[in-house]
Amino acid sequence: MYVGKKVTRVDAYDKAIGRTKYTDDLCDKGAYIAQILHSTIAHGKVVSIYTSEAEKIPGVIKVLTCFDLEEKHYFPTAGHPWSTDPSHQDVADRLLLTDEVKFYGDDIAAVVAEDEVAAAQALRAIKVEYEEYPFVLDVQEAMKDGAPQLHKDYPNNILKHTTINKGNYAEAIKEPGLTKVEGWYETPVVQHCHIENFICTAEMEGDRITITASTQIPHIVRRVVGQALGIDWGRVRIIKPYIGGGFGNKQDVLYEPLCAWLCMQVGGHLVKLDVPREDTFVSNRTRHSIRSHIISWVRPDGTFAARKLEAFSDQGAYASHGHSIVAKGAGAFPQLYPCDNVEVDAYTVFTNKSVAGAMRGYGIPQAMWAVESHTEEVAAKMGMDPIEFRRQNLMPVGYTDPFSKNEMYYDTFNQCLDKAMAEIDYERKYKEYQNQTGDIRRGIGVSVFWYNTAVWPISLETSSCRMVLNQDGSLQVQVGETEIGQGADTAYAQMAADVIGVPMDKVHVVSCQDTDVTPFGTGAYASRQTYTAGFSIRQTGLLLKERILEYAHELTRMPSYNLDIIDGEIVRVTDNRVMMTLGELATEALYSLTNSKHLTAESTAQIKSNAYSFGCTIAEVEVDIPMCKVKLLDIVNAHDAGKLINPALAEAQVHGGMSMGIGYGLSEKLIFDEKTGRALNNNLLDYKLSTFMDHPRLKAVFVENEEPTSAFGTKALGEPPACSVAPAIRNAVYQATGVGVNEAPVNPHNLFKRFVEEGLF
Amino acid sequence: MYDMKALYEAESVQHAIQLLIEHPEAQIIAGGSDVLVQMREGKRAGKELISIYMIDEMRGISYEEDGAIRIGSLTSFSHITKDPIIKEHINVLGEAVDMVGGPQIRNIGTIGGNTCNGVTSADSASTLHAWDAVVEITGPEGVRRIPIHEFYIKAGVVDLKPGEIQTAIIIPKKSYEGYKGHYIKYAMRNAMDIATTGCSVNVKLSEDKKTIEDVRIAYGVAGPVPMRAPSAEETAKGKPVSKETVKVFAKAVLEDINPRDSWRASKAFRQHIAVVLAERALKESIRLAGGEVDE
Questions:
Q1: Residues 591-630, chain A: which have Cβ within 8 Å of B?
Q2: Contact map slice: B 191-210 vs A, CB within 8 A
Q3: Is A126 helix (H, G, I), strand (E, B) or coil?
């Protein structure tokens, strides 16, 4: 059995020696180079674009502007499954190139040239005239009457407003003896910073167009390219090779449609569009900045009588994933700490900033920042221990969410807290760090998180798998769920090997996806790859196994129910006699002069379940007060992700998420100029992504409660590790200094501001 | 792919000077860790480059006849850090340049490039200012030497006339003999960053280690170019080694420095940090010199 073991990644060797091929490696050197001209105003209309100087530059093939679009096909970009119900479809508000500028960095023209130098020279030679409009950068300013309007169908810039009402908040707060705790919490705009920037290439063959792209969602990209270009979807072929990280940015259709269109404008010649890092920050997608306002009414015994959340999510200029992000956090609010009387108002609001989309955690890191900073304040105000307060109020065993039908099957929170506390020696440190004085102080803080797996029942959950038996008894396995660096291919190989009963080295997972041949699937997002693909791998594997044993029956005359496949051999289970190898069977099956069969199986599993995936972070810090600096001394994440398919990969996944959380908590923030709307620090020097030197040793511990809804007992682990790190750090700083920083990140700027406010200097 | 018009490879200092005269618009390139980045950004796109990187006579650290330490302008940061002469006499310079960027940058980046850029945040610059370094410039008229604070004219502009290149940086013996120093780089993360503020302090203590005979302090990013803080230095010269002396010294830097408000950091924040750095760098310098500040 391979499931549950620390099996080496199937792509480890190739990645270590640099043999894996990424999009750029696959691109022919004769490709034309496309570069995009971005707007240098935040809001307005492109009046004219002068391209004649650019066109004169040697090596420039073509300059195309927003005025060259023959038809305007507005298209959506979110990497969501398409909805056949028009009212649930994503907002179609993007054009390939636009004359209606909505943020500084909008796409207004493009150059196709023979090389990068000519393309860059051409971009600099293009002159643009704008009619400028006033712009708005702040989410709540944008909602005011009279604020600059971005989209005519959305008054006050509100893309969507949803509410949750449970019990009666207004009545409940009248209960005598309640303590009111209120706070505002804010998270910054951050970016995914995957190592491989977005890149794609396009070329034509006949009337079809082939796009190779660094994407998480090949089948969705095919659909959107069809929509954006107004062509049949079947004319579009998407190839996804290995990709250097995505984290949600590539769960959006970025420049595949534009690259395809540019290719068509130059006779179908191969065109490469390789986005520079600076543009990746500004003109791809970001994480929504969310401002949250929470009020809790607490009884003397530390239970909640009533709670209220208002959340304002900054969408930036276009809808992309839109309201789904803040809605996920808003949905978690009444569940994490259940309370009889809850009111939630969630708004998603357009501003003239870079477009926010999906990013690891999908609204939950923002929600946990607010909720867990607030929880710490409530516990402090009630004079209660932060851990005990949480244990008392967290979602209990047996809790079932009426909408998703998710059930809390185990005592996950307490188990995770216990394990994390033991790992980091919490009790001793917490006591030791109470009531410190001096310039340098230590603290330890905790945060839990809520997460779930996959998107059912909000969206489609489906997975398709194809298995093909080779002559030697090995098999090729294909699924629509994508390897994006997380190690999915290895997990699939482990699962397939176990279901069929073959050694893992006999399972070849086809990593490169090609929409012409890969079974349909919606791609990598929602921490769903292992959970979702598990169903179709198990179902398809059993189907193939049945066919193999059927054929074995014909060869051996033994009833198929007395046969099994064990370690690549056909075994008669009544006496464990090896009848033949699977290779012998497959060779006979393919070459038989009397009964030739290609043994394959393909099936689709529709998944109508979802699973909670919970855990916590504990962080220990040292705060140098005069220097306004936080040093992270120790940190541990504890997760209940169900059964771990591969504990080594699970640990690596958690480390990556923790690293992302450390940057979110301590240093990262994309800054926009108030005067122009321009991003000021859109490069890896000025944007403070945390480095190796900013990390202590990262610790990951697991509680393996088997998930009953799952094909292999497993559930989400892709995004959860990034959800609770930042508030745990914030709460550790709070213990050390008594100062709560409610605006992330806890960087020197925010600490200086807070320390001055609290009179520490 | 870089947008360069031509690349000329200089084989000697004289050859480099000749190339500069022949191509007055050309840009000198050494390690390239700044020039190529600017070229990619379009700032120096289409320029001719004169590479001096192969001129080995400009590389290495040695003593001059009078005991001065001579650092060839092409010496890389990592070589400076590991050099025995630097370690013995001015270890703080080795520590300071070990905080530049990451390992790859420190292998390719040179101290000459770091200073010729004329940027206030250069990690070598505040320490060189604090140690009264002298810059050696070679040109068509021969060799001239000027104090480093005169070398910096304004942000991004240094005193290099047509045909001239910087060939060495010299630390005179009287500048280093008997001094110990400490540099603190204040940055927003622990690697791959530029200084929000950098502060380099050094002291010479009396024989009994009770009196500060001399103290020098310089900052990066406290003004448009690296600068000394003379008012602060005056407060501590000849004063007893004490907590009080350190406090007065640290506060006095505010009379000298002129940091600006920007999105990178507010003026109030930079001023606050400048005082903290002065205090801590002086304390550490005193400790390294064998003194002790009572707490």
A1: 626-628
A2: 191-194, 196
A3: coil
Q: How many domains, in total, are found in chain B?
A: 3
Read off the pLDDT of residues A365-424 as tens digits, 9 standing for 90 and up: 999 999 999 999 999 999 999 999 999 999 999 999 999 999 999 999 999 999 999 999
Residue at token pair 């309370």: A339
Name the residue with tokens 């903290």.
Answer: B276
- From chain B, the residues in CB contact with A671 under 8 A are 263
In tens, the pLDDT along A707-752 reads: 999 999 999 999 999 999 999 999 999 999 999 999 999 999 999 9
Considering only alpha carbons, which residue of chain B is nearest residue A674? B263
Contacts of A582 (CB under 8 A, 6+ apart): A469, A473, A502, A506, A548, A565, A568, A569, A570
- Contact assignment for A691 to B186 by CB distance below 8 Å: no
**How buried is A662 (Cβ within 10 angstroms: 0-12 exposed, 13-18 middle, 19+ buried)?**
buried
Q: At what angle do helices A748-757 and B267-288 cross, to 10 degrees?
A: 100
Residues B248 and B225 in one domain: yes
Q: Which of these, A229, A292, A286, lies nearest to A256 by C-alpha position?
A: A229
Partners of residue A628 in chain B, C-beta under 8 Å: 269, 272-273
In a domain, B294, yes or no: no
Q: Is the dihedral of CA A359, A361, A364, A368 positive or negative?
A: negative
Instruction: Give the one of B190, B194, B196 whose C-beta lies nearest to A694's C-beta.
Output: B190
Query: Both B68 and B169 in a single domain?
Result: yes
**A513-514 vs A507-509, strand pairing mode:** unpaired
Q: Which domain holds residue B283?
A: 179-288
Give the distance from residue B29's alpha carbon to the nearest chain A alpha carbon, in angstroms. Answer: 19
What is the per-residue pLDDT for B74? 98
Average per-residue pLDDT in chain B? 97
Residues of chain A positioned with their CB less than 8 A from the CB of B42: 120, 124
Asked whether residue B183 falls in the same domain as residue B170, the answer is no
pLDDT at A639: 98
Which chain B residues are within 8 Å of A693, Cβ to Cβ? 189-191
**pLDDT, tens only, B104-124:** 999 999 999 999 999 999 999
Q: Which residues does chain A have within 8 Å of residue B188's beta carbon, measured at their own beta carbons?
A: 667, 688, 747-748
* ipTM given for this complex: 0.96
What residues in B contact A667, CB-CB < 8 Å?
Answer: 188-189
Q: Mind telling me how many Å the CA of A692 is from chain B's nearest CA?
A: 8
Q: What is the dihedral sign for C-alpha B111, B115, B121, B126? A: positive
**pLDDT tens-digit map of A443-475:** 999 999 999 998 999 899 999 999 999 999 999
Domains of chain A and CATH, by start:
13-133+198-274 (3.90.1170.50), 289-455+609-757 (3.30.365.10), 462-606 (3.30.365.10)
Query: Cβ separation of B193 and A685 shorter than 8 Å?
Result: yes
% residues pLDDT > 70 (chain B): 100
Does B260 reside within a domain?
A: yes
Q: Is the pLDDT of residue A528 over 70?
A: yes
Q: Which two tokens stand for residue B20?
A: 């500069």
CB contacts of A756 in chain B (<8 Å) are 268
Q: Does A693 touch chain B (CB under 8 A)?
A: yes
Both B73 and B104 in one domain: the answer is yes
Burial of A757 (0-12, 13-18, 19+ CB in 10 A): exposed
| Per-residue model confidence as pLDDT tens digits over A65-120 | 999 999 999 999 999 999 999 999 999 999 999 999 999 999 999 999 999 999 99
Q: What is the mean pLDDT of residues A188-213?
A: 98
Choose from B192, B262, B275 for mutation: most chain A CBs within 10 A. Answer: B192
How many CB pairs (< 8 A) connect A and B? 61
**So what's the pLDDT on residue B295?**
67
Give the single-character DSSP code of A398. Answer: T
